[in-house]
Write a structure and sequence with these properties.
The protein is α/β, with parallel strands linked by helices. Helices cover about 30% and strands about 25% of the residues. The protein has six helices and seven strands, in the order E-H-E-H-E-E-H-E-E-H-E-H-H. Strands 1, 2, 3, 4, 5, 6 and 7 form a seven-stranded mixed beta sheet that branches.
């Protein structure tokens, strides 16, 4: 039996690379364009799950399953922004320096009939105490651009992280264990 049609609701090359590790190639890419503004007093876990659900709904299709995800970097109850400029990235790195934070990676799989399956991966990440020179060097790499919390674990920032407890792939942007479980439950042919 062949697998059902799968639409990936993301333009992220990292998510495409990660899902390929499961031996899955999406039939289509349909990035969801939604308002990603957190609600007043919305907690990071709730925000990540809501974003994944809303992206899956926005990319909904009658002829296939839609897989959507969202990754949130949280310092306590605070949701860190996607760094769109160097000043924001610097603020994030200064805040995360020497402290533990959480990366919440939510995924949602919407079936053609509208039913939704969801999973959440939570990973604890600890940055070493970063010197001003280390922050400057990281910022000059440009790797932070567009990244939640101002860093990309799959690049040189990994050398600044002293500990990770949880899903490395979840921090990158798609928790593979949870993704595999959702796809298997929906009838996808995954080894």
């Amino acid at each position: 039996m062949s697998s059902p049609k799968l639409i990936l609701a993301s333009a992220s090359p990292r998510r495409r690379e990660l899902i390929a590790r499961l031996g899955v190639t999406p039939d289509a890419i349909a990035p969801a364009d939604i308002d990603e503004t957190p609600r007043k007093a919305e907690l990071p876990r709730d925000y990540a799950k809501r974003m994944a659900r809303e992206k899956a709904e926005a990319a909904a299709a009658d002829d296939g399953f839609v897989l959507a995800g969202d990754t949130v970097v949280a310092a306590g109850r605070r949701i860190l922004p996607k760094a769109e400029d160097e000043a924001t990235a610097r603020q994030c790195l200064e805040l995360l320096s020497g402290r533990r934070h959480r990366v919440l990676s939510a995924i949602a799989l919407r079936a053609p009939d509208g039913t939704m399956r969801e999973r959440l991966s939570e990973t604890a990440v600890l940055f070493k105490r970063l010197s001003a020179e280390e922050i400057d060097a990281y910022l000059s790499s440009g790797e932070w651009d567009g990244k939640a919390g101002g860093y990309a674990i799959q690049g040189i920032a990994e050398g600044l992280i002293s500990r990770i407890q949880g899903s490395h792939s979840g921090v990158v942007g798609l928790p593979l264990y949870e993704t595999r479980a959702l796809l298997k439950a929906a009838g996808f042919d995954i080894a």
